[in-house]
UniProtKB/TrEMBL annotation:
Hexamer formed by 3 homodimers. Its EC number is 2.4.2.19. GO terms for molecular function: nicotinate-nucleotide diphosphorylase (carboxylating) activity. This is Probable nicotinate-nucleotide pyrophosphorylase [carboxylating]. Involved in the catabolism of quinolinic acid (QA). CDD domains: QPRTase. It catalyses: nicotinate beta-D-ribonucleotide + CO2 + diphosphate = quinolinate + 5-phospho-alpha-D-ribose 1-diphosphate + 2 H(+). It comes from Flaviaesturariibacter aridisoli. GO terms for cellular component: cytoplasm. One of its GO terms (biological process) is quinolinate catabolic process. PANTHER family: NICOTINATE-NUCLEOTIDE PYROPHOSPHORYLASE [CARBOXYLATING]. Residues 26-110 form the Quinolinate phosphoribosyl transferase N-terminal domain. Residues 112-283 form the Quinolinate phosphoribosyl transferase C-terminal domain. Keywords: Glycosyltransferase, Pyridine nucleotide biosynthesis, Transferase.
Amino acid sequence: MIPDFDNQLYKLIDNALQEDVGDGDHSTLCCIPADAKGKAVLKIKQEGILAGLDVAEKIFRHQYPAAVFTRFKADGDAMTVGEKAFEVDAPVHTILQCERLVLNCMQRMSGIATLTRSYTELLEGYQTKLLDTRKTTPNFRLLEKEAVRIGGGVNHRFGLFDMIMLKDNHIDYAGGIEAAVERAADYVQRYRPDLKIEVETRSLDDVRTVLRIGGGKVFRVMLDNFTPQLVKEAVDLIGGTFETEASGGINRDTIRDYAAAGVDYVSVGGLIHQAQSLDLSLKAVVV
């Protein structure tokens, strides 16, 4: 669950507009009267899954609360070339200042949602769920993870603060899985009882170690760079004692093999960093 979504979104909007507008939108100031009102429509120019409609409305209304935002589609809908997603009535200055931010957000989010949907469709018929990762664009994670959710995926931890995830470097620096898990469990008991602990394993021997020492401490085991066959062996060993997650190099060609191995989750960093933005445009409606 993305924490405090609206407050984070409004900070993102303010920072993005400050970056873009600076000391003034001089292209608009020079030729459009300050009191001019207008209308614009979001046109779809590429097939895919629509994402960012809620965000677009909040951008316009954050700048001009009385903006009239009329939806023709919803987040998560399939979209085809020539359709309209929304129409907005607002001061022309507001429309022109928000135009690029709205498009950047929706194009990027729609690309991620479209790629995510293509993965989730491959998981139909299996219990396995699709997770995103922290392989995100700095300062844009909020909307990238929201796009994954719109596309049918499940958000993994949002950041370093909302889960303990003992990865290979933590384990190596700590002196091994047993030391890392014991210290993490002690930390949780002392300071943050709400935090869950996930442990990365790199071999079946690592899995056996977590089974031996992780009871009541660990909630999920990550099977990192395991083949589908090794994932099946690991899942059979774990036997439901912990949740299981397969990670590392999973793509659309292999994801069903991992799901067939019985793992609870697969995580795919490519949902975000390999997604291609989709083509959308915001056009003035001239009466």
